[in-house]
Amino acid sequence: MNSKILNSIQKIATTFVDNQFDTSLETVSIDSRSLQNGSQTLFFALVGSHTNAHVYVNDLIKNGVRNFVVNHIPEGCEKKANFYLVADTLIALQEFAAQYRALFDFPIIGVTGSNGKTIVKEWLNFLLSPDYNVIRSPKSYNSQVGVPLSVIAINEQHNLGIFEAGISTNSEMSRLEKIIQPTIGLLTNVGSAHDEGFLNLEEKRKEKMLLFKNSEVVIYQIKQNDVSVILSKQNAFTWSFEKNQASVFIEKIKSNDKTELKVYYGNVYFDLLIPFQEEASIENAISCLMVLLYFKYDPITIQNRMQLLYPVEMRLKVKNGINNCNIIDDSYSSDFQSLKIALDFLESQKQSDNKTVILSDIFQSGLYKEELYSKVADLIVSNNITRVIGIGETISEFKDKFANCITYKNSADFIADYDNLDFNNETILIKGARSFEFEAIVSLLEEKTHETVLEINLNAISYNLNFFKAKLQPNVKIMVMVKAFGYGNGGFEIAKLLEHHKVDYLGVAFADEGIALKSMGIQMPIMVLNPENTSFSAIIQHQLEPEIYSFKGLRAFLKMAAQKELKEFPIHIKIDTGMHRLGFEANTIDELITTLKGNATVKVKSILSHLATSDDFSQKDFTQSQIDLFEKLSSKLMSELKIKPIRHILNTSGISNFSNSQYDMVRLGIGIYGVSNDPEEQKKLENVGTLKSIISQIRIVSEGESVGYGRKYRAQKSTKIATIPIGYADGISRAWGNEVGFVTIKNKKATIVGSICMDMLMVDCTDIDCKEGDSVIIFGQNPSVNFMAQQLNTIPYEILTSISQRVKRIFYRE
Ligand SMILES: *Cc1c(COP(=O)(O)O)cnc(C)c1O
């Protein structure tokens, strides 16, 4: 048992409501959906702008959780568990973590800065782990919630900590300082990222430095004309690319794919090679070098270890696998904390109840092997994993701890045996340390398609969803429209994520979209906007909920409902208030009432209408007239039929522009995909989709020569042309060719030259240092879908939904 958890919570809780349940605690959780919650979990019920975990306490009690930190005891839960009462559960989590951290006394490196925090943390872990038992933040857990959760994973065997701290507004850093209590401060690059919350760079830097106010030393770069904010009592250990500015002077010489660093430190001089060329990677590597120097490593060890630095992949990717499997690729790390995160993610993304975990040996848990693999086995059991494939010497040794488990000594043995293994209709988590080179396993199991992919950032969807949630009054429900394959972004994966976020409803256009989602396991209610009469039977069979918009549809549905002897089958009544697309018109409401009255086969679950100009403020009178008519007609239906349905009329731009008419639910569409018609709002949303490809070939075209069909482009001078394997058959409009549009290569614009072909397009990359195989961005951050739509005289909806299904979708989480 981890008695430190109990000690720490006792120090901060104001009141303990002891109902005599066991208080032996092993772990802490804030996620009500995690299958890892159990009798030894201390659950903090956090309250967000539109979420409140107190509503899940009852369910958690049913699942065996017995100890909660709450701001009040939820109704019906009295006496069923122990409760620690606090004023604010987030502050309690932070204070608890600070108490917990203070129980340990070993060096802790705190890392902050605008860019590079996670990479520097991962690299330091790599460089220092041969000599220390390192505890570090998992993934990019650096927020007000992520930092406390990271710190709570410290145990007695650790002897060095590396934690990152990220802040978006003023005043957050002091709270993180109290939790991390870093003894060594490391400031990485302070660029312009996340600038919004700060007045200026100076303020941002000051705020960041607060993390280090009690550190014994702060490590950072000094640039020319730099007014550094050093807190006076602190020791600084600085570096610079300029002579005589800092404790360490560094010269860099780029050669081939590498960079040579010449390091001058006091009267010591040595040089080393790092396998990178970009500025950011060089600076991040130097941050690590500084820590090694501070720890008094000798030049030879520094050289040996730093030449092995590698690109860091922190994302959990979801990919389509062979034989209808889906794969969660986390093949770059294998510590205990990140295994827990990956298992929660597996649960949220599983497409099948068959779950396989391919797992390497686990490093740096700080636990003894026996205890570690017992804990891993417990995790595997609580997450209902069907089968475990262990790869590595150590996990093989502890094979008996797992129920359905086969093991291999190394990846090569697994690959040799691959043809004898069966992978079919299952969700596979591939999780291993870098040294096991699980990439090879991923590529065996991955479905093969061409190089063009649409990458979907699931975190961004969650972020955007919360952005709109925050605009809603309490208790207003959310329907998210996932029609047209989630606006082109992917139907199932997004539906699964939304289910995870407990949105109330999904909306699809046609019955078959809904059937597909239901048969893949989506359980939340789904409304079908445009059900054809021929699909009613399937709708009933799959428990979809039809939107009824005409008498023809209504009578057909009622007839079938009577035949099948349905009782109160949920339907949704659409009324036409001015869009003139689908819906009952005002003058037919009486007939509608007569038809529905007394019919118990169906239940009017909701009444809705759709706005035609919610995005256009110049027509706000028209929108208001639609809302007024909706109010009148829906009220009449409600009073005459004596029903209390959910009413809803707002789409995304309606939520932003007509916030007073939220009724009981809103229908959110394009907004969660990161697109707004309002430029100010657009800035606050996160980009969701990035359409990527690669360079197939590069050639030099001489002055006067032409490129492509019809010779539409003539080179004015010798020009470097790259061919990209994406064309109009993938959904890129031909109007985007012939120097109208561009793609981004290495953060630079490359204009599309000549006409776009069916499967390819050509760009001018004369001024870009690029080679065949390099990555190309078709849209994403830049050009944005909004920008493309403006240039092409269309709307972002069309661009997103045009991307062909042959383009593979890859879903990832930061
Ligand atoms: C598509 C759709 C929405 C969502 O619209 P957005 O502008 O994408 O938010 C809402 N309601 C209905 C009826 C729709 O068809």
Automatic annotation (TrEMBL):
The keyword Ligase applies. Pfam families: Ala_racemase_C, Ala_racemase_N, Mur_ligase_M. Residues 688-812 form the Alanine racemase C-terminal domain. It is an enzyme of class 5 (isomerase). GO terms for molecular function: alanine racemase activity; ATP binding; pyridoxal phosphate binding; UDP-N-acetylmuramoyl-tripeptide-D-alanyl-D-alanine ligase activity. Substrate binds at residues 581, 758. Keywords: Isomerase, Ligase, Pyridoxal phosphate. Catalyzes the interconversion of L-alanine and D-alanine. May also act on other amino acids. This is Alanine racemase. It comes from Flavobacterium pygoscelis.
